[in-house]
Structure formats: structure tokens, C-alpha cells
Amino acid sequence: MYKNNKHTILFPLILAVGIVLGILLGQFVGRNKVETQLRTLISRGGLNTSNKIMQTCMLVEHKFVDSISMDSLAELVIPLMMKELDPHSIYIPAREMQQVNEPLEGEFDGIGVVFNAATDTVIVLNVIPNGPSAKAGVVPGDRIIEINDTIVAGVKMPQNDIVKRLRGKRGTEVKLSLKRQNIDDLVDVTVVRDAIPIESIESAFMVKDDIGFIRLSQFARTSYIELMRALAELRGQGMRKLIFDLRDNSGGYLDQAIMIANEFLPKNRLIVYTEDREGMQVKEFSDGSGTSSDLALVILIDEGSASSSEILAGAVQDNDRGTIVGRRSFGKGLVQSQLPYADGSALRLTVARYYTPTGRSIQKPYKNGDEVDYEMDMIRRYENNEFFSADSIHFADSLRFVTPKGKIVYGGGGIMPDVFIPMDTTDITKYYIEVTGRNILYRYTIEYADRHREALNKVQTIQELTELLDSDKHLFDDFVRYAAEQGVRPNYRDINRSRKVMEAQLRAYIGRNTALEDNGFYYNIFPIDEVVKRSIELLSEMPYPHPSDEETLQN
């Protein structure tokens, strides 16, 4: 029944998109030719709905009393068509293509700095080593006053506008006027823009003895290569067990999820299979080339983990390869294909469903055209107490599946972790909400980094960062004083209750202002991260996988 409905809806809509595009292209290949082609199509008959759409397009273009741009009509009509389909089919206008695709492509053209403009001044927090700005002499702590002779400091320029001025085609130049500590005059530098890598591995470090931690933010084109590099580095530091953090990873390229799953699985294991509306299946198996099947493995997920994250977590869970820890994942089991148009726009259309090795579809329920109801799912989960109690999550018996080792797993709405860790709000107080909600805590760390820039610039290792932060015995008290100056009076009952969380965040944000970047952040956050702490406990008790175990599973 569902396939029939899908077929009935999709065919005329896709055809209509093609017709609208055809009219759009008529501006380039001749209107008479397009009109002739449309009339020919109509004369052939077919679905009444399709004829109606085509005839309407022709009537508007040739009979409407005022001239109208078919470009603008197409930009309005196609998104409306997509809204009548599943929640993940979308139209991407040409003007948005770069912004949409850039994070997944692994690079962009720019100057290679990390900056913050929270205080109405553009402060350079970090400079990418050997990048364009580093070569031009920009250093952390510099304030960007002018970009190409346009003042950007103290004028409340939106951060997006600043980004647009700094970015540009590789090989082009941008002139920066910088205010540098202990220098009276502005320092002028010319930076030649170049390709800047976007790392999808946000963080990779050792958390304890032989346990490594890797956080993947998205499945970008370079994710597998980045992971292999991170694994090699951590193995060199003694890693034999791994925490792989996929929380808030909304997905990305399917092939990267398959390649990464292959890295952890022994030979001939089903990773995932897809099925289109005709029932055609494509199955992906591990080929035995992975070098990490010897690692004891824990994968972290939560309600923000979707699509490729769920493919990887499902492959590991269904093959009894590791332990999934956290909260139930998002529940996106639909596969999109990006279909480009000649004008640079694209249709991201759902073309198949994917299934985990045991046969689970983890796509949560939805109604075609009801995007609002779909987006309300997270609110319903919260209201049902699902973020705080595993007992609040219920699955139908018809969605019950069994792994090779006899573990019960469920489909129908995300990956349910093997070990559920509830959301922790124990230390959230009114004072904490005030200082974080008003961005006071974060602004303090920016100003702290500015005052201690010389010392922070010397930090190259986690140990050096820890020693530096430990040496400042007045860090927290100074923050409380700063918050009072910003209008948040100290409530010491709340402060004592939230102190551990706030101290960790202070250290984490300051750590991010060093060459360690996100490693400096996550290393200081994980001591208050209950999911990571529980994962460390599990891995500490977990033996290393043995080849004999894998052979038994294959047989």
C-alpha cells in the first residue's frame, strides 16, 4: 500500500519538476522549441495530473497578462512539491549550494583563522598552522580592525558579514589591519586566500591508560581518511580500546559510514543494505581490510545522531561488535540522492530506505507533507520522559530483531543503545542558567584567553594545558566576580551546586583557545560527561577482542 501511494505521488511531482526546469532552460535554448516539446508531451496523453501541471505552466508563461519570470516560479513551486513528500526530500537553490555542501566537502577557500566576535571585536583565537594567515604573520590574540579598508571593529557587524569578507576565491588577496598587544600602531598584513581544510574529526586523545577517545562531527568526504590518521596516532600512544563519539552527528555521506564500519568489522559482515521503491536491494559487506577489529569498541549516540551515524551504530550493534552507549538516536532511515540542475541548484530526493544487518528499518514514523508533526517528535520524547528514563521508551513486538549472539534489538524509530544514560540536569541551577544563557561564562573565557595569551600560545599538549589551568587557583572566584559585574549576583547555594559543571566549562572553553583547539575542550569536559565516564568504566572491564571470538561469530 505504501509503495503504491509513493509511486502515485512521486511520478507526477518529479515530472512536474522536470517540466518547470524545461521551461526555465527555454530561456537559453529558445521558447518556441520548449513550447513545441510541451505540446507534444501533452498530445501523447498520460496521467491527467501530469497534463494539468504542464498545461498550467504553458498557460502562465504564454497567456498570463503580465510577463513573469519562470525562474522565480520554479523557485517557489519546487520547494512546495518537496514539502508534500517525506521530511528529508528538499530543494537546494543555487545560492545556497556552497553553504550546504561545504561542510561535507572537507575544505573551503579562506584565510585560515578561528575568530570570535562576541564582544563586537573580531578576536583571532587560533591560526591554522601553515595556513594563509600563519604565513602572513597573523597570530592568536590579534584583533581584526579593518578588512580591505572597511572597519569591522566596534560597528556591530553581523558575524556572517565578517565571514563573507574574509572568505573568497583561493589565490585572491585580503588586506587586514590588526591591533596587536603591546604595539601602538595597527599592523597591516596581506593574506592570500587558499584552501582551508574542514576537519570532521573534532577531537582525538587518550582519556585513560589504553582508552582513546575520538569525536566525529559529521560524515564528510574526508572522514575515513581523518579517522585512519587519528587511529594511527592514538595507537602510537598505546590505545587498545576506543570510545567513538557520534553524538549530535546528523550524518553525511553514506559511503564514509560504510568505509568506517568496514574498518571495525571482520570479513563478510553485512554492514547495511538499501531498498528502493521497486524492492531492489543493494547490500554492503565488510571486506576484511579493516585494521581496527582488534579494538574494544564503545560508540556514543544520542537524539542528535542520525542517518550515517545510525548506519554505523546499527552495523556495530547488529554484528555484536561493540557496545552502544547513550540515548536513542534520531531515527532517519531514508537515503537521499542529490540530483543537480543546470543552474547550479539541486534536488535532494529520497530514493531508498536503508536497513541494518538484522533487517531493522530505524526510520521513525512520518506522514507525507506533515513536516511540523515530524519536527515535534523530539518535544514528544521530552514530554514522555524518554530523555531521562529508558522505561519510558516502548517498541512494538513486531519491530523486535535478534543479533547473532542473541541480543534483542528494535527497529521503527532510531537505534536504542545497549546502555542507556539519562540526560543529567542535576547540577543545573538558576545561577548557571543566567551565566550561560546570557553568554557571560563564554565571554569570560574569551577575555581570560586575551589576558593570558602569551602563556596559552605556549601550550602544545594536554599535560601543559592541565598544568597551566591548575596553577591558577583563583580562576573560578575571578569568574564569579566577573559575572557579578555583568549583573548576575552570586547565589552561593546555586554556585556550590553547579560549581563542578561551570569549572569544567571554564577550563574547556579556555582550552579551546590554545593550539589544542577541540582536544583542549573535550578533555576538560569529559570528567563531567556521564556518558563518557560510564564508557570508560565499561571499557576498563572489557577484554580485548580475540581472533577466535571473531571466527566463532563468522561460523
Task: Kindly describe this structure.
The structure is a single chain. This protein is α+β, with helices and mostly antiparallel strands and 555 residues long. Helix content is 43%, strand content 19%. It is built from 21 helices and 21 strands. The strands form 5 sheets. Strands 3, 4, 5, 6, 7 and 8 form a 6-stranded antiparallel β-sheet that branches. A 6-stranded mixed β-sheet has the order 10-11-12-15-16-21, sandwiched between helices. A hairpin with a 5-residue loop joins strand 17 and strand 18 (346-355). Helix 1 (2-29) packs parallel to helix 3 (48-63). It is globular and about 70 Å long. 37% of the residues are buried.
Please sum up the structure shown.
This protein has about 550 residues and is α+β, with helices and mostly antiparallel strands.
Distinctive features:
555 residues; alpha+beta; six-stranded antiparallel sheet; six-stranded mixed sheet; globular; disordered N terminus; disordered C terminus
Radius of gyration: 27 Å
* Number of distinct helices: 21
The 3D shape can be described as: globular
Provide the helix percentage. Answer: 40-55%
Number of strands: 21
**Poorly predicted segments:** 1-31, 548-555
Structural class: alpha+beta
Biggest pleated-sheet summary: 6 strands, antiparallel
Mean of residue pLDDT?
Answer: 87
Strand content: 15-25%
Termini Cα gap: 38 Å
Topology, pairings included?
Blueprint: H1 2-29, H2 31-43, H3 48-63, H4 70-83, E1 90-92, H5 94-105, E2 107-110, E3 113-116, E4 122-127, H6 132-136, E5 143-147, E6 150-151, H7 159-166, E7 173-179, E8 187-192, E9 194-197, E10 201-208, E11 211-216, H8 223-235, E12 241-245, H9 254-264, E13 270-275, E14 281-285, E15 296-301, H10 308-318, E16 323-326, E17 334-340, E18 346-355, H11 371-375, H12 377-383, E19 400-402, E20 408-410, E21 419-420, H13 430-437, H14 440-451, H15 453-457, H16 462-471, H17 475-485, H18 492-512, H19 518-525, H20 530-541, H21 547-554
Parallel strand pairs: 11-12, 12-15, 15-16, 16-21
Antiparallel strand pairs: 1-18, 2-9, 3-4, 4-5, 5-6, 5-7, 7-8, 10-11, 13-14, 13-18, 17-18, 19-20
Helix pairs in contact: 1-2, 1-3, 1-4, 2-3, 9-10, 14-18, 18-19
